[in-house]
User: What shape does this take?
Amino acid sequence: MKSIEIGILGCGIVGTGVAKILIEKQDLLASRIGARLHLKHVADLDTTTDRGIDFDDGVLIPDAEAVLNDPEIDIIVETIGGKGIAKEFVLKALKSGKHVVTANKALLASFGNELVGAARESQVDLAFEASTGGCMPVIKALRESLVANRIERMVGILNGTCNFILTKMSKEGCSFDKALKEAQELGFAEADPFLDVEGHDSAHKLAILGALAYGMEINLEDIHVEGISKITPMDIEFAKEFGYTIKLLAISKNNTGTVEARVHPAMIPSSSPLSHVEGSMNAVTIDGDATGQTMLYGHGAGMMPTASAVVGDIADIARNIISGTRQRMPILGCPESNVRTIPILPVKEISTPYYFRFEAADEPGVLSRISGILGDCGISIKIVHQKGRRSNGSVPVVMITHHAREESAQKALKQIAALDAIMDEPVVIRIENNDN
Assistant: This one.
């Protein structure tokens, strides 16, 4: 039976999981692939920590260059993470004619077009299923299963840390800070959670998905990004009263000649399947013109779920090697000549319904002044909600609007915030219904 040689760069959480599967499931993988996947080397500066794996002598080494320069290695698996040395190693592997599998969404979102070009020049495969959605096969779905569809829209919960925090706040009424602390204690959040809670991790994933869905170049720079750090238990409770759930969403829509791509907290109907995605789980809905809406759900991170996706990519490449083919599947889902530069619609031009909350002084005429400004900006109010809940001496005034243009909403909010009767910065959360 043919042996395909594998080299792993990085033996942290994901790298350890990949090594574990390759070693412990050798026979299962060989029976399904028709070749033996042999883990020749794992390179990591730390070769002493017990990872719970019985490596054969000489497998775990400290020298990544030795792995990259080994002529026998067919597939390099990059699990280092980040955009520094990982980029250098991946480019070197591709240019030397080795296939590469990576779970590195930050690297792909920032430099994916360059890496795809390098893979194309060397006629090798670059696979990255684990970069987006963990074990959910969303890359494979877009690139293969849904190839007959014009993708109209994608909406995803793509960050388990944020979803855990918002679930905790919703179920227990706790603050963002308390929920974040628990997420860190349980290992769902990093010590520095900025990339997660401020939406950047989700944006990395959305940039990759958008390229595959629409046949466009990867474009991270123009994605609008907001995080969840300003979401309060009060807003979560108001959302429930209106029949909504707050989630951090990655949203992409296929407009004529442009694409919407944005990451931000949003209210979604409590009847929506995404509203029931709880804890650290991920999910994405994909609307195709032939299929209608499909939904993928699963663990978006974690050692073994992510490793499973990585090994799935290794298996695909191994099958190509057996059959003597390379780049059977275009890396971004369509031939290079058909990959286009499609502009991302500026966020000021989008239109959605809105949730506004104003902390207003309890005095006559405040509501009419707020309503007047909204009306002058062309924003129609659907629901007004004012209760005697006092917060720091003020009363919350909550409004749900009909569809309004983002530029108009921001103009109105700036004018309202300048009113003497407004005691704090207005809160705005976009609403994503099934019809927008």
